[in-house]
Write a sequence for this structure.
């Protein structure tokens, strides 16, 4: 059975062909070195938070990276209650939940899960400073899938669970670094029903698309997603990404030779 994460659902909803290239065929894309550096730092932050949660020492990591030190200690100062162990409360970082659903395995990995007898809190660390609008965050598949899975795989009802995103400053923020901020999203029966229905629709659609073993459909170019897509050339949507001057590529024979 295919696994579906929030990333898969997001890509699938935007463009089935993008999902195919990214997750079914693992087509490599050129990566911006600055973005790789940001991702590496984000991974370090998550690892340190996990190590701390396991009760392992983190001082050496913090000594070597001032931005990491500021981010971790800023978070501990901003939300001390989050880090106080409580009786009868299960907590685990990098907690994985899965659910068999309509022929697929829905999967989520929570940065931190805090689960009590009558409430469940999903915590997610974001290593960028400017949070999106709360309404936009509520629509993200990460929020929707994570909350859905927790309700479906625990004893809790929708109104007993919530998801909190914490935003911490990355090294690039330097002098403009602000203290960590958070957005908490609650959940309801209605939202749970809507997410279940949307998951059913998306998984039904994917099953239909995969049946003929052909390329999955491309999105309508007019919707604007191709302009930011790393597969624009592969999809022959280069003019959407690089402008009208690239509406057609010149013939190989017409391209001037570059002496090396
Ligand atoms: S270029 Fe457009 S059609 Fe092709 S994968 Fe990207 S979003 Fe989809």
């Amino acid at each position: 059975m295919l696994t579906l994460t929030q990333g898969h659902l997001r890509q699938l909803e935007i463009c089935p062909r993008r999902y195919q290239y990214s997750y079914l065929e693992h087509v490599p894309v050129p990566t911006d070195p600055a973005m790789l550096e940001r991702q590496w730092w984000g991974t370090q932050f998550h690892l340190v938070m996990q190590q701390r949660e396991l009760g392992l020492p983190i001082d050496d990591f913090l000594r070597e990276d001032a931005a990491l030190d500021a981010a971790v200690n800023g978070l501990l100062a901003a939300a001390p209650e989050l880090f106080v162990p409580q009786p009868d409360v299960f907590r685990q970082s990098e907690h994985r939940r899965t659910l068999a659903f309509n022929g697929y395995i829905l999967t989520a990995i929570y940065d931190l899960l805090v689960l009590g007898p009558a409430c469940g809190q999903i915590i997610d660390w974001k290593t960028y400073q400017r949070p999106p609008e709360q309404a936009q965050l509520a629509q993200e598949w990460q929020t929707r899938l994570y909350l859905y899975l927790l309700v479906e795989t625990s004893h809790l009802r929708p109104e007993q669970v919530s998801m909190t995103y914490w935003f911490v400053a990355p090294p690039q923020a330097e002098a403009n670094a602000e203290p960590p901020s958070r957005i908490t999203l609650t959940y309801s029966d209605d939202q749970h029903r809507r997410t279940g229905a949307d998951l059913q629709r998306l998984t039904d659609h994917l099953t239909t698309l995969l049946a003929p073993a052909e390329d999955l459909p491309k999105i309508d170019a007019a919707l604007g997603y191709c302009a930011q897509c790393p597969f624009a050339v592969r999809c022959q949507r280069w003019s959407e990404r690089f402008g009208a001057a690239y509406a057609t590529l010149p013939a190989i024979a017409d391209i001037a030779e570059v002496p090396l």
